Amino acid sequence: MNGVELNALRNGNQQSPVLESGLKSSFINDGHDDEDAFSENGDDEEALLSTSYEHRRNDRSVVKAGRWPQVKDIVIEAAPTLLFTTIGLLFTGELLDHVSRWRAMREVDQLIMIIPVILNLKGNLEMNLSARLGTAANVGELDEPHIMRKIIFGNLSLLQVQATVVSFVAACVSFVLGFIIPRAEIPATQPSESALATRQLLGLLPRRPRPTLPPVDTSRKFGIHSFFMVVSTAMSAACLSSLILGSFMCTLIVICRRYGRNPDNIAPPIASCLGDLVTLLLIGVVSTLLIPFLNGFIPILVVIVVLLSFFFSFAATYRNLYVKDLIKQGWVPLFGAMIISSTTGIVLDLFVSRYEGFALLAVVISGLPGSVGSIFISRLSTTLHAVALSAAPSGTFRLSKNAAEPSSNLVMIVLILITIPVEIIFLSVLHGLGWLHPPFLFIAFSVGFFCCAVTASLIIAQSLTHFLWSRNLDPDTYALPIHSALMDLIGQLLLVLCFEIVTLLGAVPHTKAALEAN
């Protein structure tokens, strides 16, 4: 549901196709009053906790379950997802380390500059997609096959449009950064200035370890061929990633709906994690395929093909009533999040070399709270949309106090308790692999600050979602990019504070490389 539809509900002027299908959804009981679905006695909390809306062809009514079975469903669905996300973030860091050494990255270093910017923007696009489709699934809009096809194809074409725009912006940003950051001639026995500059730029990529780059040619290329090389790589990799991952996310959400699972608990973290991994892999593969044609016409031809695809996708999106209004929405939070993440990169760059293991721990203390918050935002947004639909059977909507502020304390507590074992497992894996050797005192402090980060993530998620809803802005589109960027910054500031305290107490962890050096 977009901002236009929210205004339509509030003003009672029109009823969109999405709302018409939603009003026939599982949140409207056949022959019963609206109070049966969301009563004034706190059933909105049940809506927030509910993770399984039974799909029935003849009777799509909400199946009210007990509180503890609902809590169990949250744990079963969210805990494995968050653990998978954490492992995925580690693999992304390892992949980044390898990709940064490939020939294309060394010959055209703007290619590696583009990675943090494009991953930030693309990850938010996939999370927005998962949130929108999760809401559509939970309010019953995906239950009708012909409506489901229109919504899914519309969102996939919209994703192509967005991916093309953000990848072009990322390419331009990388070239601007290439002009700003100098490259100086230095002795061959030391790391090149370009390597140091690239490491600083990779600080824009929070939650991921920065690669150690080998010395490369210190002559930076700014010609038209280099520009088309960067643009063609960014745009083609982003569009391919959107096609692959977007199709996967749509399939995942439909399967969750069909088997009674709540996609709000599963889709957003997976979208964020796989979005980074798939896009980074495609950037490496595409750049490797195009680098032999650096001075030829192939990169230009690739740009032309992507632009043709962009115009086709734009036309398809504009003709689709379900996503037409989304073309002009959501750009401000996307690029605002990019600016916030740049600040996070400064924090990472200042402290990653000061503290051993900082980059490894930043993966979780920033990424995992952000993933938990994305789950909470998606659930809150679904509840708000559902209450709006149930309150407006005739096309008019009056936002009640309960609908605007659903009770969610129990969900927050459950999500906090889920993440603590994931954090402990992560630290155990680091210790077991020999990557990090943390003292017990450090583990205690890191888990404590991690809990603070998760709590802050959930509080920000709740406040931000309700604030956007009160301003007629759809949280599915506006909340996730801003929340993700804020949690990257807050998480790393808390990690800096943790390291400062344990350093004073003499409980600093040691990495495998540091121990081998000694």
From TrEMBL:
Protein's name in the database: Solute carrier family 41 member 1
Keywords, ordered alphabetically: Ion transport, Magnesium, Membrane, Transmembrane, Transmembrane helix, Transport
Localization of this protein: Membrane
Predominant location: membrane
Ranges of residues in domain SLC41A/MgtE integral membrane: 115-283, 364-498
Family (UniProt): Belongs to the SLC41A transporter family.
Membrane topology: Multi-pass membrane protein
Gene Ontology cellular component list: plasma membrane
Gene3D superfamilies listed in its UniProt record: SLC41 divalent cation transporters, integral membrane domain
GO molecular function: monoatomic cation transmembrane transporter activity
Record-annotated membrane-spanning stretches: 74-96, 158-181, 227-254, 266-291, 297-318, 330-352, 358-377, 410-434, 440-464, 485-508
